[in-house]
Specification:
Layout lengths: L9 E3 L6 E3 L3 E2 L8 E2 L12 H13 L4 E3 L8 H10 L7 E6 L1 E4 L4 E5 L3 H14 L5 E6 L6 H16 L3 E7 L3 H8 L4 E7 L7 H10 L2 E5 L33 E2 L3 E2 L1 H14 L6 H12 L3 E3 L6 H13 L4 H11 L2
Parallel strand pairs: 3-5, 4-8, 5-6, 6-9, 9-10, 10-11, 11-12, 12-15
Antiparallel strand pairs: 1-2, 7-8, 13-14
Helix pairs in contact: 1-2, 1-9, 4-5, 5-6, 7-10, 8-9
Length: 334
Amino acid sequence: MENTEHTNGTRTLGRSGIEVSALGFGCWAIGGEWATSDGQPLGWGKVDDEESVRAVRRALDLGVTFFDTADAYGTGHSERVLARALGKRRSDVVVATKWGNVIDEERRVALGSDDSSAYARRALTASLRRLDTDYIDLYQLHISDADPDRAAQLRDTCEEFVREGLIRAYAWSTDDPERAAVFAAGEHCAAVQHRLNILQDAPELLALCEESDLASINRSPLAMGLLTGKHAAGRALEAGDIRNAPPAWLPGFTESSGADPEWLGRVDALRDILTSNGRTLAQGALAWLWARSPRTVPIPGFRSVAQAEENAGAIAEGPLTAEQLTEVDRVLGR
């Protein structure tokens, strides 16, 4: 099977042939504040849209060509900010977005989900408008636990979108290998988006990507910020930050008291390995992902030019060595 890693810091999105930078940028945080209908925060706190635009453009200048967003992020706001930042450079990049969550743009509220084919088409039309483009490179189902039979219908709907020229390829954002395999059976499925970082490995999903010739798009590559080294136990985050009132699916943070000390201890134990060769902690965590599989494309979040520069700076250093991978497993007892 063709290797998806290239020598110039790029990777291919599975069997689609779409080439992207080895590092993508995740655009959840730049969507700003939004919440569930009962007030549970779903964003990362307040953002400065002008800084977000500068950060995207800086990433472009540093060779990043893959940007991952979703219609739900900021209830459409992330897509709008990304479109503004890309401007006339839209054709130079690969844009991924997601659908499945029902949103109220005016109130900035998530209203649940809709797994119907009719809603998929409405959501795609709305994303195309917000992104100011006539096609999406990678369209991803955002309902991680959707019914597999319904998902098979949505896979067929995505094939229709490909035939109509509205999307180039599609994927499912899910941590369940059996669900991911439903989409993998489709001709134009190119990837699985799933959680993967040095603290949370996903061997079954990586095996599926290898078997099915898919890219592994890694959300939470820095463990929601724990692998940046910028969080301390007992330090609460701002009220509008999802990590300050974490839902059950977000481990590593505790209610109103910030990072979990146990998780921070694991990060500290890995610090020397990850910061070797002059890397920052975050750059080392990204380097582990590239070493873990030639199919990985991590998509760390960002809210500032400084974060964009640090993340993009990891590309030049490349992956960790095989010896360092082994040492990581020894330290973590894996």
